[in-house]
Design goal:
The protein is built from 1 helix and 4 strands; from the N terminus they run βαβββ. By secondary structure, it is α+β, with helices and mostly antiparallel strands. The chain has one domain.
């Protein structure tokens, strides 16, 4: 087991059907693209988190893993250090900015 200090983390959940090599690689790329699009800095390496049902999931839709990456919030983003210059944009209920830009 590894214990890490508290940090923010971006992740995507994977169903059993999404655990092949190509789908896992695409999930890593998607998390990295999400961080980059918002100006966040990676806070460490990406990781794959396997759930206890990894080997026993019977449905292809069952969530069995996450691809995650710790990050430091971009200046002005929610949770960024005080004194950052940009204003945070409030998120809509679906997680996108009100202007629809993600």
């Amino acid at each position: 087991m590894r214990v890490e200090p508290a940090h923010r983390e971006a992740y995507t959940a994977l169903a059993r059907r999404d655990t092949g090599y190509a789908a896992m690689a695409a999930a890593h790329d998607a998390v990295g693209a999400w961080l980059h699009a918002r100006g966040h800095a990676r806070g460490g390496p990406s990781r794959e988190v396997y759930h206890p049902n990894w080997a026993t999931a019977s449905s292809p839709d069952e969530r069995v893993a996450d691809v995650a990456c710790p990050f430091a919030p971009a200046p002005g983003a929610a949770g960024a250090p005080a004194g950052s210059r940009a204003e945070p944009r409030p998120a809509a209920a679906d997680g996108r900015a009100p202007d629809g830009r993600g």
